[in-house]
Amino acid sequence: MAYGLIKIGTINIRKKDNCYDLITDVNDNGVTKELFFTVDIKYAEYLATERSDAFVTVLLYYAMFNGYDIQWEIPCTEQLIYQLTAYYIPICAKEISFMHPISLMGKTTSEALQCEGGVGTGFSGGVDSCYTIKKHLETYYIENRLTHLLFTDCFTVDFSEKYQKDFLDKYLHNLPGQAEELGLEFIFVRCNIDILFSIGRYQDPVCGEIIDGGLFTLKYCSMAMALQKLFQIYYFSGGVSPTDFTFLSYDCAYYDMFTLPLLSTKGLQFYSAGMEVNRMEKVEAISDWKFAQKHLQVCIWDNDGNCGHCGKCIRTMSELYVLDKLEYFKERFPVEDYKRHLNKRFGKVLMEAHKGHIFEKDILFQMEESGKKIPFLAYVLCPFYLLIEWTRLKLKKVRWARKLYRKFHLDKMLYGRSTEEYSQSVDKEVLRK
């Protein structure tokens, strides 16, 4: 039984400064919201006003999370709606505890849109995207070679205003030049999906805390659908191998290999790129690549470099260290500082592996395979880090504890940075379903 209805109206193109919006009015249970995808004027001709595919796809998580049916006016691609209705929705609703069965209602068509034949992937500068780019720049198969790199702001909704501006300024300054260095076109796509259709922060009894950031696959693929007059292939850089497949996660990356083929049509093919290797194999594949050595960007905190202290920096540097390739990345990471604090760094790797994180488990497995020894003091520090993490996770749900945490700047003591500097939801309640 549906709990509500989302109606997608007609689709238009609107000029705004040097950009163009693919825009529609969405009636969200009686409230009208203006939903759009924005691209540079150069790519306006590729925006697909003739299909509702992008809008149905980008709204699907929100609709299934809340149990809202979706209705549209402009036709959708019949193959897409069949796959969503016959497989995606019933299986996800059955297997994923926070999703509901919904109905999709509207006109469909099998008529193909004229397409430029472009091949795209998302571009962040991280390990997953670098691996996908390197592989599909060098592929023997001509029709599968990359032509475009996409970047979007849709995941920045949780950033503080100051951090979001710094993030976009730095990335939009660096990434276009890096794409040009690779001989590829760069496209920046804005979308306001997480502003208007946020799921908030919910504690699910099976999958843990669910937030917008963990539900990104459909949103990113909708960007390619908005530009389906340009793209015939889109590589979504997955971070999880088939061995780790599960529906029991807050992070949809764990079941991308099931969902992505169900978004593909005769006109636009989606691939879960990178699932054929594990994380260590990805890092090894890009470790000798001069482009990655010059531009690899993984940091949570720093938008124009890698701090060396956050979780992503420690994980990536540890992967490179185990592969004996860390020295090649001195331009991107504080290598000497990492080596001076090896006990602390591996203490945190052990902590994350103990919590079940697959990337850190891969690091430890690679160390065992290569005969490298984990520093003894790392074992001593690991329980201490686990205690801090356990306490933090318990207390962050308690309002008075969060206030003390902010008042005495305990996050700066633990991490060297304040989460208030980059997140505007650090003090929001975690709601229970």
Explained architecture:
The strands form 3 sheets. The chain has a 10-stranded mixed β-sheet with strand order 6-4-1-2-3-10-9-8-13-14. The chain has 16 helices and 15 strands. A hairpin with a 3-residue loop joins β11 and β12. The longest helix has 21 residues. The protein has 433 residues and is an alpha/beta fold.
The span between the termini is: 18 Å
List the total number of helices. 16
**Main β-sheet description:** 10 strands, mixed
Overall structural class, as computed from helix and strand content, comes to alpha/beta
β-strand number: 15
Query: What is the strand arrangement across the widest sheet?
Result: 6-4-1-2-3-10-9-8-13-14
Tell me the strand percentage band.
15-25%
Poorly predicted sequence stretches spanning 5 or more consecutive residues: none
Averaging pLDDT over every residue, what do you get? 90
User: Rg, please?
Assistant: 22 Å
Helix content: 40-55%
What's the overall geometry? globular
List keywords for this structure.
single chain; 433 residues; three-stranded mixed sheet; 40% helix
Question: Which SSEs are present, and which pair or pack?
Answer:
Blueprint: E1 4-16, E2 19-28, E3 31-40, H1 53-66, E4 68-72, E5 76-77, H2 78-95, E6 104-105, E7 108-109, E8 118-122, H3 127-137, E9 148-152, H4 161-181, E10 185-191, H5 193-196, E11 202-204, E12 208-210, H6 217-226, E13 231-237, H7 256-259, E14 269-273, H8 279-286, H9 290-295, H10 311-322, H11 335-340, H12 342-354, H13 358-370, H14 376-395, H15 399-407, H16 410-415, E15 431-432
Parallel strand pairs: 1-4, 4-6, 5-7, 8-9, 8-13, 9-10, 11-15, 13-14
Antiparallel strand pairs: 1-2, 2-3, 3-10, 11-12
